[in-house]
Design the sequence.
């Protein structure tokens, strides 16, 4: 997958900080986004942070 220079630089920094390879980094970033946006079930219970509001406070 070809990404622009800015994204490749950020991805390389993430890989280095996380001590993981490029493919693993892309999978983690994509999975986190998919879970956060509600396209993938995380396996955790509760309301995703971006969907919290005063109406669902308990």
Sequence:
């Amino acid at each position: 997958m070809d990404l622009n220079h800015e994204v490749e630089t950020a991805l390389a920094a993430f890989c280095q900080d996380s001590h993981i390879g490029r493919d693993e980094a892309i999978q983690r970033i994509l999975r986190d986004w998919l879970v956060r946006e509600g396209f993938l079930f995380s396996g955790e219970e509760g309301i995703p942070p971006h969907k919290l509001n005063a109406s669902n406070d308990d």
